[in-house]
Design brief:
With 620 residues, the protein is α+β, with helices and mostly antiparallel strands. The protein is built from 11 helices and 29 strands. The two termini are 46 Å apart.
Length: 620
């Protein structure tokens, strides 16, 4: 089904293209197995235009709707038709080019407003529907390098045939990309194949798709590939699976090719989904498939200036995924910037003054996007600001103008310092190891995990009636630890990490389906008793036989106000996931004198040290 919020989610995608400098070598996907092989980059043949029709009209640009043909997959043996629209400035004089693509379930039409903005700023823009979506043919391949990345690369070659597009050399058009969600990851897939892509702006996208759809947060390093099988987000995965199945019926003229036993998808994707739901966890084959379509496996071959824009309100692709991408790209020397914005898949409405394609002065993120491409596509000597910026929802500003005053900045990640809060056997979270008392808290995982804790209804949480349903935890199915009322405001910016002594009778089960699973989360409790689960985020982890567990909690940007209490909850269940369906007895044990073994490391920034406003306000 296509939900209103999915429609909006796909509007978050877009792609601004740039490419120029031709690197001597690049890693590409092996046609047979997808393995990386080293070879000199040879530009692929350009996508072939097969038909055209009038497109949008504007006094500043000309637009034409095109059908292109690309050849993708093993040996480029699969022919796919791509539907999109080309925007050219009316007085174009060798301008850089931009590629935009849609999010999952969308089409090129979602990106028209972005294209019209970019063309007015002197870019040739090609916005197109990704393979399997919005009138483009072939099957959905989850942003595969050899399919989706190859298709984008051939569109880059097509742009190189246009006299209006700036070139750095023969077969080297200056191209960049911008897109959101599914339209974000394809930028990595394309840039890993094609060194002509020089700047990308991936918005609300993933680092490791296996982690995104089935996370196991029992890792402090943000590298999850070697962790035990994760905990399936059955609500999110089912929503997108249904959306993909509907694509051939919504766009019958773009028949998937080759024919698939699973409408819309490559059959391997359907098999992975069905096996995971049946087993209750992702199988090794599923994990391998999802890893292959994830930037963490090939980031060393992405050489493009990258502006990462990730949502604070996003239970699908959380902050940790963007931080993992930030660290990976930074480690290989790519220019990279991390922006944490207010909106994400859980609520796709930007804050006032945050994003505008019609009035850039009223869109702070819009200005960041334009600055990034002005510097890395047009070569302008312009500041793109500090390495990290983050939206602070508690800051008041003129909602009729730019959201810049609400953005804090930092020179690097992580931001601020760590505040240790120690678990005490009394059920308290305390500031000092000397305040800890010994004790054990026992709780149950009920049969079939019912009744279950409720955190969100994935995909529609920002819509009625779900937006008014509070989070709940059934009595006896969780352990909780709470601070005293805070003496002053406490701003948390970053990714908390929990070290805890946890055990379960099924922790060493021979099957992941019956291994003990827990869900860690942090509540903000007001003086009146109102409970807020920050951005409805939870962090599942498998115990896998270990009593000493490190759990990476969801990253947040949140102010705990003076007088509020911080409550850590470790629950046995969550309705949005397929957890442990076998009954189990779990326990958290705290021993005085071993305080470092049971502590919540909360990242905080003292308000007096926060930079007020974005990089323009900071004068950087």
């Amino acid at each position: 089904m296509r939900t209103p919020r999915l429609r909006r989610a796909l509007l978050a995608g877009g792609a601004l293209g740039l490419a120029g400098l031709l690197l001597p070598a690049v890693t590409a996907t092996s046609p047979a197995a997808g393995a990386a092989t080293r070879h000199r980059f040879v530009p692929p043949p350009p996508a072939k235009v097969t038909s055209s029709a009038p497109g949008a009209k504007g006094k500043d640009f000309r637009a034409v709707i095109h059908h292109w043909t690309v050849h993708v997959g093993p040996h480029r043996a699969t022919s796919c038709s791509i539907l999109g629209e080309l925007f050219v400035p009316r007085h174009a004089r060798r301008d850089p080019a931009i590629l935009t693509t849609n999010g999952f379930g969308g089409s090129y039409t979602d990106q028209v407003a972005l294209a019209e903005l970019a063309v007015r700023y002197g870019y040739v823009v090609l916005t197109y529907s990704g393979l399997g979506f919005g009138g483009s043919g072939c099957n959905i391949e989850l942003d595969s390098r050899s399919y989706d990345g190859e298709a984008a690369s051939q569109l880059v070659s097509y742009l190189g045939t246009l006299r209006q597009v700036k070139k750095d050399g023969r077969d080297s058009p200056v191209v960049g990309m911008i897109g959101g969600s599914y339209g974000g990851e394809v930028q990595f897939a394309a840039a890993a194949l094609d060194p002509r892509i020089k700047a990308i702006i991936p918005m609300i996208t993933w680092n490791d798709l296996a982690y995104s759809l089935a996370p196991n947060n029992s890792s402090p390093t943000l590298r999850w590939s070697k962790a035990a099988p994760g905990v399936l987000k059955w609500e999110w995965t089912s929503l997108f699976f249904g959306e993909g199945l509907s694509e051939p019926f919504q766009n019958p003229t773009a028949t998937p090719f080759p024919p698939s036993s699973c409408p819309g998808f490559d059959p391997a994707v359907c098999k992975a989904y069905l096996q995971s739901v049946a087993a209750g966890y992702p199988t090794p084959a599923t994990i391998s498939l999802l890893n292959s379509d994830s930037v963490f496996t090939y980031y060393r071959h992405v050489h493009a200036a990258t502006l990462l824009m990730q949502g604070e309100d996003d239970s699908l692709f959380n902050i940790a995924e963007a931080v993992a991408n930030y660290r990976a790209l930074k480690s290989i020397g790519d220019p990279v910037k991390l922006v944490l914005q207010s909106w994400g898949h859980s609520d796709l409405t930007p804050a006032p003054g945050e994003l505008s394609y019609t009035s850039p002065a009223k869109g702070y993120e819009t200005q960041l996007i334009l600055d990034w491409f002005a510097r890395y596509l047009k070569g302008k000597r312009i500041s793109t600001g500090p390495a990290v910026e983050y939206f602070r929802p508690w800051v008041r500003y003129n909602k009729a103008g730019s959201a810049e005053p609400a953005y804090g900045t930092a020179g690097a990640w992580p931001v601020g310092r760590v505040l240790p809060l120690y678990l005490s056997g009394s059920g308290a979270l305390v500031r000092s190891p000397q305040e800890v008392s010994s004790g054990t808290t026992t709780f149950l995982n009920p049969p079939d995990a019912q009744p279950a804790s409720y955190s969100e209804t994935s995909g529609v949480q920002d819509e009625a009636p779900f937006d008014s349903i509070p989070p709940t935890d059934p009595p006896g199915t969780f352990a909780s630890y709470e601070t005293a009322p805070l003496p002053a405001n406490l701003d948390s910016v970053g990714i908390p990490v929990l070290h805890v002594t946890l055990s379960g009778t099924a922790a060493s089960s021979v099957s992941p389906a019956t291994e003990a699973v827990v869900f860690a989360k942090i509540y903000d409790v007001s003086p009146t008793g109102k409970v807020t689960l920050v951005n409805r985020l939870v962090s599942p982890a498998r115990l896998a036989g270990s009593k000493q567990v490190t759990i990476t909690l969801p990253g947040v940007v949140h102010r705990y106000a003076k007088g509020d209490r911080i409550e850590l909850v470790i629950a046995a269940t969550d309705q949005a996931y397929i957890g442990d369906r076998a009954p189990d007895v779990l326990s958290v044990s705290v021993t005085r004198g071993r305080a470092a073994s049971d502590v919540l490391d909360l990242p905080v920034v003292a308000p007096r040290y926060e930079t007020t406003g974005g990089h323009r306000a900071a004068g950087t």
